[in-house]
Design brief:
The protein has 290 residues and is an alpha/beta fold. The protein has helices spanning 27-37, 52-59, 86-91, 110-126, 149-160, 172-182, 189-192, 222-225, 242-249, 257-273, 279-288; strands spanning 13-19, 42-48, 66-69, 83-84, 96-99, 105-108, 141-145, 164-169, 185-188, 201-205, 228-233, 253-255. The protein folds into 2 domains: 13-108 and 261-288, Rossmann fold; 112-255, NAD(P)-binding Rossmann-like Domain (Rossmann fold, 3-Layer(aba) Sandwich). It is built from 11 helices and 12 strands. The radius of gyration is 20 Å and the shape is globular. The structure holds 2'-monophosphoadenosine-5'-diphosphate.
């Protein structure tokens, strides 16, 4: 019962996910269950959208409340927004759009927030459970593997938290371009193998190396992993990549890509409703429908 069928009336808030393809998205399942759990008069549907500009123009005079935005519209939707979160603007991609009562569209990128908060919790776990006032990423050496869309999210997100960012990419020019933008250092994937100016660094893989079906691959050697205390992999198919397995074996705390996925959803729910997300319910449903 995807929509938790109930009466939809004139005051029902309407949300959805725009994308192409979009039918596989679990977001309607998660959001509808979440709305129901707290008795919100709201519904969340799939929108198969080809042309984002046309979508926002068509819907500009209709009373809807917001949407999530997925492939291939995360960049193209930017130009239809009235206001964009500054970091999302720098990253150049949005995935969460809130339509204010006055019709203005406000956009966020919750992907970077999801990833960074999961990594911060990984670091906090390492240092005991006492929450520190600032970000545990402040001052940390943070190595991002990859310089594509996900690489940008992690690099900007970490820089915003005060980390010292290193971008390592197969193609050096792309690493350099991103590193310059975040005030960080650039290198190739080969160079990162011998890069250990200090111990206890943080690693975030955003390359596709190790993704299903090539699950026997890893973007960095196990030997090099010894210098990292927290290792995050943006890949979530499989959940447990070779990189994370080897990181565990070297004693690092590992942060799963699925954690980024679920936490970005919490952020979207917060932006849509102004309420904290029912985190346990989200987690249970994600597991049940994985
Ligand atoms: P996404 O939006 O998911 O980040 P992307 O923009 O296509 O995807 O970026 C893919 C990243 O994976 C890039 O950093 C890419 O490196 P290049 O810039 O050199 O292309 C990296 N990548 C993909 N396949 C790779 C491989 N076989 N070895 C190393 N890096 C790889």
């Amino acid at each position: 019962d995807l929509y938790n069928f109930r009466l939809i009336g004139p005051d029902t808030k309407v949300y959805g996910i725009i994308g192409k393809p979009v039918g596989h998205s679990k977001s309607p399942l998660l959001f509808n269950a979440a709305f129901k759990s707290v008795g919100l008069d709201a519904v969340y549907v799939h929108y198969l959208v080809d042309d984002v500009e046309k979508f926002f123009n068509t819907y500009s005079s209709i009373d809807w409340s917001g949407c999530s935005c997925t492939i291939p519209h995360k960049e193209a939707a930017l130009k239809c927004m009235d206001d964009i979160d500054p970091i999302a603007k720098k990253i150049g991609a949005i995935n969460n759009i809130v339509r204010r009562p006055d019709g203005k569209l406000i956009a966020f990128n919750t992907d970077y927030i999801g990833a960074i908060s999961a990594i911060e919790d990984g670091l906090r776990g390492l240092n005991g459970t006492i929450p520190s006032a600032g970000s545990p990423l402040a001052g940390k050496l943070f190595v991002v593997l990859g310089a594509g869309g996900a690489g940008k999210s992690l690099a900007y997100g970490a820089a915003q938290k005060g980390a010292r960012v290193v971008v390592a990419n197969r193609t050096f020019e792309r690493a350099k371009e991103l590193a310059d933008k975040v005030g960080g250092q650039a290198m190739t994937l080969a160079e990162v193998e011998n890069f250990h100016p200090e111990e206890g660094m943080v690693l975030a893989n955003t390359t596709s190396v190790g993704m299903k079906p090539k699950i026997d691959l890893t973007p960095i050697s196990k030997e090099a992993l010894k210098h990292y205390c927290v290792v995050f992999d943006a890949i979530y198919t499989p959940k447990d990549t070779r990189l994370l397995r080897e990181a565990r074996e070297t004693g690092a705390v590992v942060v799963y890509g699925t954690e980024m996925l679920i936490r970005q959803g919490f952020e979207q729910y917060k932006n849509f409703t102004g309420l904290p997300a029912p985190e346990d319910l989200f987690r249970q449903l994600m597991e049940k429908h994985a």
